[in-house]
Design the sequence.
């Protein structure tokens, strides 16, 4: 199993790759720019090229995570900002040698007709991907929420990919906390979940897994991450079932767990490697 980390770019893109290497990670995730802003970044292309070269020499792969304000169902006045920002994320990530940019599934904007939000999401993706010619993919992540919230099911994620004009430019990122909090993976139904995901060809396009425990019970709808072994509601035997799945053996498991208990990512990765590698 590839247990990897999210690392800071405060020392540049090459610095992020070196930090992941220090943590004994074969892969890593990073924010390509300020995670709180959609502002287009004029990035250091030389640094990005060095990151790409370093990763290739060390057999490492990377993905990036788009800023939190990135919304695939934007209001009309924000749509161009989202498209421009996402294209900037793709450009930076491609320069760093990354294979994808994680983007959260859109949000419902029309209580009277939810289909309008899906149409808007597809329009936003089409506008972005029409202008993108690189190899780096948009990786759609399943939303968190109570059952019925937009973007929480595998059926929705795979259907959006089928409906866009450029499906080959889209992959998936599966968040374990989001799935547990949404109730689509209860911890005890992995076989049924995996069978459905395989039938929908979800695993064929799965690029990364956000590996997070949940501080709240299954179906809570709350996005509060916990450490894998501490203070979480997903138990070790439930992790065992997921991690033994043949569908995800080669997928990087990216930790986004908290450090409030004094457990560093480096400590947790070491524990995971000792347990499951």
Sequence:
């Amino acid at each position: 199993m590839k247990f990897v980390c999210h690392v800071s770019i405060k020392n540049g893109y090459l610095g992020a790759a070196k930090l992941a290497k220090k943590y004994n990670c074969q892969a890593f995730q990073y924010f390509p720019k300020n995670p709180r802003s959609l502002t287009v970044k004029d990035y250091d292309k030389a640094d990005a090229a060095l990151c790409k070269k370093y990763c290739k020499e060390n057999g490492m792969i990377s993905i990036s995570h788009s800023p939190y304000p990135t919304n695939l169902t934007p209001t009309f006045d924000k749509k161009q900002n989202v498209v421009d920002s996402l294209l900037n994320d793709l450009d930076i990530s491609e320069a760093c040698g990354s294979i994808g940019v994680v983007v959260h599934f859109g949000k419902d904007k029309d209580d009277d007709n939810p289909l309008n939000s899906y149409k808007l999401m597809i329009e936003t993706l089409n506008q972005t991907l029409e202008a993108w010619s690189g190899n780096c993919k948009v990786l759609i992540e399943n939303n968190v929420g109570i059952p019925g919230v937009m973007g929480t099911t595998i059926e929705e994620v795979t259907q959006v990919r089928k409906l866009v004009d450029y499906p080959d430019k889209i992959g998936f990122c599966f968040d374990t906390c989001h799935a547990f909090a949404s109730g689509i993976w209860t911890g005890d139904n992995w076989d049924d979940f995996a069978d459905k995901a395989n039938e929908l060809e979800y695993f064929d396009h799965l690029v990364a897994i956000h590996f997070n425990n949940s501080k709240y019970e299954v179906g809570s709808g709350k996005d509060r991450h916990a450490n894998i072994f501490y203070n979480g509601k997903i138990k070790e035997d439930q992790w065992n079932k997921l991690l033994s799945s043949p569908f995800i053996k080669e997928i990087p498991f990216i930790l986004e767990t908290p450090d409030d208990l004094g457990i560093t990512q480096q400590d947790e990765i070491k524990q995971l490697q000792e347990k499951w590698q």
Q: What stands out?
A: The chain has a mean pLDDT of 95. Strands lie at 2-6, 27-30, 61-65, 100-104, 137-141, 170-175, 206-211, 213-214, 225-226, 252-255. The chain has one domain: 2-276.
